[in-house]
Design brief:
about 425 residues; mainly alpha; two-stranded parallel sheet; 13 helices; about 10% strand; globular
Length: about 425
């Protein structure tokens, strides 16, 4: 009977894209696709020789076995950030008309993943694993291989591990398996003793140390570990020792999630984007990310919890309360529009639009990104960190740069949640 509930959630709970004027995190910018790229590498240095060998390993077996395309959506956020948002701290930047590999060019994409993998076994965030890199770019990546700039932000690291696992199943390439195992072990080693995961590891401070649900960090990691523990096909090859460690990490993660759930006047609600790594209390991150109850993260947590084959009473109570809270705070009678506006250049992006909230009695339910703890009022903030109660009150740069409203809880979740078989021992 528990299988019915699990199947229901797998088919109905989704993280819908937000309908705001902000640049959608998971949209790809149109770009050229490479049909048969040939990348030559100089051989003057040992580091470049290593990079060339990574590339050669994939190329040597390219004709041995054709590989099927692997879903690239896990890399979407990092691709968007690298191609569309400026950051002077990146060691390589996108070039004009920079091409991308097609989804079926698995070997070339894996070669990139191996190239970007750090000596500490993780990956730096906000780079495009599908980009056809120039010689200069490849050399820059190799030169930074010893950096400890690894981060889970924007769907990073767990997406590379999952991709490598699926690629290895098709290819049997031993160095692909080794890279996947290294990334897998990196994830396991980064978990706090209380079950949470930081945004950055091993070097983290400030809000990067917080237990992070934002940008798919903790749930993304736990989803991959649960796939491994459950012996999903792309992890069928994984050794039993790692499988057991993954199962224990998932158990600890679930316990942490349940203890992080925000309780107001005795009633459980949802979760914040990040929680204190010691006290588990809701915490702010960047100045415009207030400590609050957040529907987007709450939906992804509910979705993960209901993947469990036999959810216990604590899990069921937590998800019941979260869905009840989502129903309570849905907003009616408004929609969010992107309107044309004078072109304006900001530090990280240039926009020619603005985002406004419009009254519309026929609009479907929508949710704010942040709700004030204790009042359930939608709250907003600009880079000054001052809490506001209207989107119009914050500066244009943030209005256009953050998805302040969205349709994250899908219709079927809210409409039929209570009809599923949820009984437990």
């Amino acid at each position: 009977m528990h299988r019915t509930y699990r199947s229901f959630f797998n088919s109905t709970v989704s993280l819908s894209l937000c309908l705001t004027g902000a640049l959608p995190t998971f949209f790809f910018t149109p770009q050229l696709l490479a049909s048969d790229p040939v990348i030559a590498l100089p051989d003057e240095s040992e580091t470049l020789r290593v990079a060339a060998e990574d590339k050669k390993t994939s190329s040597d077996s390219a004709e041995r076995k054709p590989l099927s395309a692997i879903d690239l959506s896990g890399f979407g956020s990092c691709i968007h950030h690298w191609r569309n948002l400026r950051d002077e701290n990146r060691f390589i930047t996108v070039e004009p008309d920079q091409a991308s590999y097609r989804p079926d060019q698995v070997r070339e994409i894996v070669a990139n993943i191996l190239l970007f993998q750090r000596e500490n076994d993780g990956w730096p965030k906000d780079y495009d694993m599908t980009a056809v890199l120039s010689d200069t770019q490849r050399q820059a990546v190799v030169a930074t291989r010893t950096n400890s700039d690894t981060s889970y932000d924007n769907g990073n690291i767990h997406s590379q591990v999952e991709y490598l696992a699926k690629a290895y199943v098709q290819s049997g390439e031993p160095n692909w398996r080794q890279a996947c195992e290294r990334g897998f072990d990196f994830m396991l080693s980064s978990q706090y003793s209380n079950g949470g995961f930081p945004q950055r590891y091993p070097k983290h401070s400030s809000y990067h140390s917080h237990i992070t649900f934002n940008d798919g960090v903790m749930i993304g990691i736990l989803d991959v570990l649960l796939d491994a523990a459950d012996r999903k096909p792309h992890f069928a090859w994984l050794d039993e020792a790692r499988r057991k460690r993954a199962a224990e990490a998932v158990r600890l993660g679930i316990d942490c999630i349940l203890r992080c759930q925000i309780v107001v006047d005795g009633t459980a609600t949802g979760w914040c984007q990040q929680h204190d790594e010691q006290t588990l209390e809701a915490r702010p991150a960047r100045t415009f990310e207030l400590a609050s109850i957040c529907p987007q993260e709450t939906v992804s947590i509910v979705q993960f919890l209901m993947r469990q084959p036999e959810p216990d009473a604590k899990v069921l109570s937590a998800t019941d309360a979260a869905v009840a809270w989502l129903k309570e705070v849905q907003l009616l009678g408004i929609r969010v529009e992107r309107i044309k506006a004078p072109r304006e250049e900001f530090l990280r992006q240039t926009v020619s639009f603005d985002v406004v909230v419009v009254l519309d009695e026929k609009a479907t339910s929508i949710w704010a990104r942040h709700y004030e703890i204790g009042t359930n009022r939608p709250v907003f903030a600009g880079r000054d960190g001052i809490k506001k109660y209207s989107l119009a009150e914050i500066e244009r740069e943030r209005r256009c740069g953050t998805p302040w409203y969205g349709h994250w809880p899908d219709h079927e979740l809210l409409g039929t949640y209570g009809t599923a078989d949820k009984s437990c021992p």
